[in-house]
Amino acid sequence: MEGYVLSPELRMLQATVRRFVHEEVLPLEVGMDPEAVDISQADWDRLAHKAKAAGLWCLGVAREYGGGGLSVFGQCVVAEETAQHRNGFYNPAYSAFGRPPPPIIFAGTPAQIQKYGVPTVREAHKTFFAITEPSGGSDPATAIETRGVKQDGRWVLNGTKVFISGAHEAQWGVLFARTGGPGHRGISCFIMETSYPGFTVRPVPVIRPWYPNEIVLQDCPVPEENLLGEENRGFDLVAKLLGYLRFPYSAASVGVAAAALGMAIHHAKERVTFGQPLAQRQAIQWMLADSEMEVRAARWLTWEGAWKADRGEDYRQEASIAKVFSSEVLGRVVDRSIQIHGGYGVSKALPLERWYREARVRRLGEGPSEVHRMVIARNLLR
Fold first, then answer.
1. Annotation marks residue 145 as catalytic
2. 212 closest CA partner among 90, 327, 98
3. Residue of 230, 304, 366, 370 marked catalytic
4. What domains, with CATH codes, occur in the chain?
């Protein structure tokens, strides 16, 4: 790959994933409840078997751990395609391409990787990533109040995490707690099994059907060997290993926006009002044109950042730009598509009304737009 040009291999992968979503995932959704968040175990087994046979398993995980070894740029290309169905935001392709663990696990010891990371890739175990707390999530360096204390050769954790996806059905996850003084130098990362005593989970109902969770830790014991990375240096792992995930996140927003635009174009051609197709109305044409321009811009901003990440360059500014722009473009494009569809746009017969609700969350997830704007401005003025 040179610049933003997709290699023949990546174009082939893009086409394969697109075909899989259209031929395997979309037909399943026809008969599902519009608010469904998962498919049956039998359907998942069937799709996962096909995905493995096609070499589509855990594409973003390194090959040495059983994944596809895809670059960040490649992950963005795939994420845009896997998001283009009703439940594509929060369970892309219904996890038929595997359930990669939090990538931070691969910064652990060989024993931790072999106990948690590799089996999760192989068996598609469910995991979680817990950093946000009731006191805040955008500034974890100061907001984390969950406390970890060493006692009798183990760690004992007390505190609360909130808005944690997947914790209610996970086998394990990674969780951040304060083990030292104030600031980012006092935070450690732990591998948490959900079976540990004192670990409880409850759902937090929100605007979307895919509910996050609250995790409560009450004198929860964690083995000393489950400290991930160095004591009081857990925040370094976040900075090094998780920032690039904002690019596939942004690409998923682009994917749903592209799908909503495609639906709007099709409807505008088919729907006739006052003797003319909607597509001949200037007001509709301008909405479609604005959406096309914004989708393209969001895609290129995302690709630019992913390309820099793959080249080992500083991509933090680009990650914030891509995240803000893609999430806000998504909301505008879905809104226009609903407007073009009229009453059908808010009908549960179409995915648009669900995407409209879920798109609102994207301006908060992975950091609110306002925080990212602060980051962007700070870098400009530095």
1. no
2. 90
3. 366
4. 8-100 (1.10.540.10), 127-238 (2.40.110.10), 242-381 (1.20.140.10)
